[in-house]
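Entry 14. Two folds queued back to back today. First construct below, sequence then structure tokens.
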Amino acid sequence: MHAYRTHTCGQLRAEHVGQTVRVSGWVQRKRDHGGLLFIDLRDHYGVTQIVFDVSAAAFKQAESVRTESVITITGEVVKREASTVNPRLPTGEVEVRAADIVVQSLAEALPIPVYVENDTTPEDLRLKYRFLDLRKDKLHRNIMLRSQVIAALRRGMIGQGFTEFQTPILTADSPEGARSYLVPSRLHPGKFYALPQAPQMFKQLLMVSGFDRYFQIAPCFRDEDARADRAPGEFYQLDFEMSYVTQEDVFAAIEPVLHGVFEEFAGFGKDKPWTVSAAPFPRIAFDEAMLVYGTDKPDLRNPLRICDIGEVFAGSTFKVFASIVAGGGVVRAIRAPGAAAQPRSFFDKLNSWAQGEGKPGLGYIVLEGGAGKGPIAKFVDAPRLEKLKALTGAGDGDAVFFVADKKDAAAKFAGQVRTRVGHEMDLIERGAYRFCWIVDYPMYELDEKTGKIDFSHNPFSMPQGGLAALEGEDPLAVKAWQYDIVCNGVELCSGAIRNHRPEIMYKAFAIAGYSAEDVEQRFGGMLNAFRYGAPPHGGAAPGVDRIVMLLADEPNIREVICFPMNQQAMDLMMDAPAEVPAERLREVHMRVQLPLKKAE
């Protein structure tokens, strides 16, 4: 017999009754029923119930073992009595009557609970003892889901004709929109490597090298703040690139992979199946997305839409809105179907929420009996009300909410109102993954603080119209062959058709304030490669962590990562970042200069 197990803790069934078996695992729970002691023994595969009779030699030793100790049990598989069968366990028809117990590892008192319902352990403690946290059933399943999703992504990409390559981790810094982690060089004093924010330049160089279709499950490193859907420090993405392709070719390659993965794992751990958007996914232009949804990450499960209704209030007696329109601002409206039936407290609650967001409030009109009611209804005469109905599609029984501000600010807050009202009215479609592509991004944006033009998205994107557009159009009007894929309001990836022409690249970076020397210094390797024949190419990089987060229906991305950092980018389990001894610093020609403390 094997030293540790003949079967796993999830393997025993009724057909094993009468067999002598050996199982090993963690003591999940103990129950003392007087003359009988029951232990739920857990391993990676499941749970098996062990029973010790008070007369058994192993009883006393089993009685003293703490939960989460690792033990090996040898005994006979017996059928449970009908009244004690556990239908929730695959092994619930049987139990092991223990004849022998070996304690492989005795657990000390636990710093956090492992097997407990309604766990309220603080996150920092969970991260400090992550090896215990990972034993919990839900988190264990999440990590297994992650592994299965990555395997499915890999199969899907290979099936689409892609080849997996690995790109360097120690590389040069590049402007990807976030801070890079820097690594000092021991052999080259005063110089630094950077950890890649993405394998951007290397995957483009692979296309120049003639490999045609590349992918990898790539680690990426960014020194940026944490969010619920973004882990600080590092993350993984399905990075891919293709040669001789248009934007539609890229979409056609990745849509079946993502659709297949979401179909395979949709509703993971849920009783009812989830539905997934059929390919091809909807294409929504950036400008339309900002108008209709108030964001370039729209949640299409929400049926509410935003309308531009500035003309309703232009020149009206409602001076607040009229002056905003006259000053070049906009008024947006969100129709809430059936909201007229809501109590006054519903509207008061939304108004208080808006004030909590730093706004004066949230104006609205309720439509009943062909007339408008509410705080600003008196400013909307009959002709303006008819125009409002025509623009929004609203009718009796509906309510219309208003946001007035400068264009960008109005779009952002209208998007927040759309989301809030959708949730308050329980309008969000359940059990669904709704995908879309956001396309036609602006090539550039204006930094309001500095007044300078900068790239709005990926600096290596091809402008629509090529060099002629860069030379002849207002930079802020130039669109790029850039695109994002969004699912349920979560951005899963960004991508682009790349700028593979050196002369266009020089001009594109010049508009953003980079000299030719800057471009040569920072991207010389890629530029040099482009001079020797570069194919048109493009790609994207869906985020693995976010895909798994959506499939697991988890609100926080740390719930689908084995060993995440906390929100302050600290690894509490391994105590990183940590101070480095002076001799190690000397090896890399560095010394620490801490910031001065502020005077109290």
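Second construct, same run, same settings:
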Amino acid sequence: MTAGDEAASERPQMEAEASDHAVVTQVAGDYAEHHHNYVRGWEYLSAVGVGEDEIRLVEEAYVHTTRDDGVAQPVQRAVNALKRPLGQRNVVVLVGRPGTGRAATALRVLLDVGVSGKAIFNLVLDWDRPRTAQIPSTPGDGFILDLSAYRSLPKDFYEGLIDYQREAAKRDAYLVVLVTPETWKPGSAVATPAVECVGPSADEVARALVRHLAAHRENWLDELAELLGGATSPEAAARLARIIANPEIKKVDDAKSEYLNWNTYLLNWFEEHNSSEELRDRALLIAAALLERLPADIVMNAADRLFERVKGAVPPGGALAGLDLDKRLDAIGASRVDGDRISLSEERHALHESVLTHVWQQRPQLRRVLLNWASELSAPGGIAVKYLEHIADSVTRLAAGPNGGTVLQIVTKWTATDSKPHRRLAVGLLESMAVHPVIGAAVRKYLYDWAGQKNTSEALAQAIAKVCAGALGSEYPRVALTRLRILAARTDQRGAAEVAEAVRVLAARPDRRVLVLGEIVEWAQSEDPVMRQAGATAFLALTDLTGEEPISLSLAAELGGEPDVAPEDPLFVRGWRAAWRHEATAVQAQASLAAWLDSAEVSDEQVIDIAGAVLTGHLGDKGVADLLVGSDAITAVGRRRRRALFDRLLHAVAAPAEEPDEQQEQEQRTATAA
């Protein structure tokens, strides 16, 4: 049975080993604690709890697979594998085709081994390469890890499961891994038990769900029996059951039509509205589908723009010409909702999605026209500019369906055009596609590759950075940071301004400020010069004090507000040291620290502590004397702080009682000269 199961079998696959350049810092810590110690928040994958309704559905309506040969059904086999008498494994793999109900089976397995519904979590794959060290094992919790988007898994993942199994058993945690037969090829690398997941009959699944969700409509299944053949997957049966249970569906025929994506209805409609006089109605239907539940004037104007794009001639007289709105809505089967908004799906649930899919599939020569039209509508000054996200979501659904690759091809070309409307919608679409459950993994991989390619244009680099600052950074912060790291390391500095802004946006969330700063400081301290360049550049972006609400002040306040949980070596100190020692960013690091010394927005104690820690032991370094002596632009605050800093550094130099060595003498001379 399927309850929130994986996407359809045509989902793009992600190659696990193609993006093996991400750096993961492994430090011992508590998964549940996401406070200010930056190493803890990034150590493990984040987890999302399973909803109560979904848990209840699996508890009360799960259909067990039965076999005539007496072999135990998948749930029992998986439970036996997890709680075997001679040494618990605590890890099991469910192998099956998409749509066979693996997600529901995983939930049922975890419930049956005694994990509370509130303690079951889906893991968010905020990584570029599967690593067992990032899988949490908190006591009493159960985790579901869906790796179906990977064509293969790296060898060290299989090997790492051995150590994870020991840790999970010790902590009484459980892990269920979902894979396809093509994904799971462990060979002799791991002894993790794998259970084949074959779903029950579609009719059994549909009836169990309808009884649970809307028992009074179970008889509908008798009339829809033709839809549940032997080849129907449990996932498809679950979809039909939810359609039947939807109170917005009033008739059996409508349930059938929605299940079939309104195919027959739309084929008939387009055949009946085939005359040249009715082409304008077709444009209105498509506009209403793209702009479902938007104001009538926007939909009507958008329809006319589409009609003109296919060389249609709008009747003379403008808004005075033609039939009244209600007549035109009748022609396309739409209605008014919420006052003056237009909806296709009010009377035929989900029809608007099916219209776009139908046109996309049936009229391939119209695809580029539709995308250019959507770009025009959402452009600055466009009639639907306020609804860019709405339009992006609609187009993303097309990208996730059959022949959706066309969308990505066109969108990437848009990023390099001189057209601001096209670039704006391209960013919106890439952002939406990057977090989509079906195509997201593939799109994130494209973003990774583009970020490092030599021929990536300035426009594409800017687009990638903007995507990382948006939904991608919100849902997959480490994935976003990795792409920003690659961009920041580019010697051509393409997209540099957008990268700096994206880093600041990621650090703006209070729960991630110190986490992001800590990750970037790790880069800046790397032995790898490319990584060091990226880290130093990104760190200096976070220290920038310009703008209305600089993120550096929030970071400073957070680091200074709770010294008891701050790392021994403050992050700002480590970051500035690394940026100053890196030749390519030394001058910028000096200027950045000087700006902090001159700013009244940062407390005296904090900035002097930071500057003192950065400079102590390095007074002979290039630029130190310039920083201490300063320039004509120094503020009164800056002069006072420099005197205090100078006194502290002199005291640090004079403090040792023993005979000063040659380096100390040099530092003394430098300080005196300053």
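Quick look at the second one. Strands lie at 47-49, 91-95, 120-123, 142-146, 174-179, 194-196, 294-295, 335-337, 341-343. The mean pLDDT is 85.
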